[in-house]
Amino acid sequence: MANEILAKQFTEIEKKIERLLERNRSLDVENGQLKERIDALELELQKRSDLEKTFAEEKSIIRSKIEKLLSRLDDIEEPA
After folding, report:
1. For 34-49, what is each residue's pLDDT tens digit?
2. DSSP secondary structure string, 1-53?
3. 65/58 Cα distance (integer angstroms)
4. pTM check: above 0.70
């Protein structure tokens, strides 16, 4: 009788351990997927940041050129 109870308890413990191991494997897979997603998002963020920097530089260059052109127009208008 005691052996049967003990055997049943061991069986229950084994089942619980198997469920925990399966859950652990599942979480490992999910963790790997999330890490890949993080890497992809960080790469996208870096690309967007680089693009924003490029656009800011281009905007500054364009603004400078416009200011120079306006200055030249002012110089043309003054003598007349």
Report:
1. 999 999 999 999 999 9
2. -HHHHHHHHHHHHHHHHHHHHHHHHHHHHHHHHHHHHHHHHHHHHHHHHHHHH
3. 11
4. no
Distance CA 30, CA 27 (A): 5
Cα distance between residue 16 and residue 74, in whole Å: 84
Q: With CA atoms as reference, report the closest residue to 29 among 40, 18, 21, 41.
A: 21
Residue 66 CB neighbour total at 10 angstroms: 10
User: d(Cα 4, Cα 10) in Å, to the nearest integer?
Assistant: 10
Please give the structure tokens belonging to residue 43: 């790469």
